[in-house]
Fold:
Amino acid sequence: MKLTFLGAPGAGKGTQAAVVAQKLGIPTISTGNMLREAVEAQTEVGLKAKAFMESGGLVPDDVIIGILDERLRKDDCRKGFILDGVPRTVAQAEALETRGIKLDCVVSLEVDDEDIKRRMSGRRVCLKCGATYHVTDNPSKDGVTCDVCGDKLVQRADDAPETVASRLAVYHEKTEPLKNFYAGLGTLKTVKADVSIDEVTKAVFAALGI
Ligand code: AP5
Structure:
């Protein structure tokens, strides 16, 4: 199965992608996590992406398509994959189509902007393995370290309230039009995602028929 999660920043794409990946035994490909690793390692891609990410803007399409091309060529993608946070513009979606990469399903997680702002202020992440928590809604066992790898949890720099506001504006302008794009291809499934993580997971599994 090849699928992607669409949704505003903080809608729960990474959280749900991790559960579906475990259930289906296929990898999750998060361009956000790949870019954060590149920024941390100060690679060429990281140096290009840093300022865009810090301001809440989108990294240019050619950079995203380059890293995605390289990642999708790896052996673990042969049985399928789950994209998290990509495509994020119509140009990125068209690039997938041009390469013959047809997504079987596009799940759009719907949460209103006020709920998103609350979620982002409580998010804590592990920069080592990419696991995501929330201080009240989904805490790690001890609240300070990652349950998966034991690294210290941190707040993402782009979760500052003013950056979240910019990211939401960018989402509505550049990414939301993808819903029409995929509705036109007949692959869009919409899931109400302003309920508990477990309830969203149930609705996602139902939408995917798994
Ligand atoms: P990226 O890392 O993709 O960030 P994002 O899309 O803004 O999404 P998030 O990771 O913030 O949220 P999410 O939907 O995964 O939510 P999560 O599961 O963590 O991108 C970062 C930046 O990189 C972009 O701004 C851009 O600059 C660049 N970039 C990346 N990809 C790009 C691309 N393709 N093109 C161009 N630029 C790109 O959940 C959020 C919080 O809520 C967590 O704390 C979680 O525990 C909690 N939560 C989740 N579900 C629920 C629930 N149902 N109830 C209560 N709490 C919940």
Summary: Strands lie at 2-7, 28-30, 81-84, 105-110, 123-126, 132-134, 153-154, 188-192.
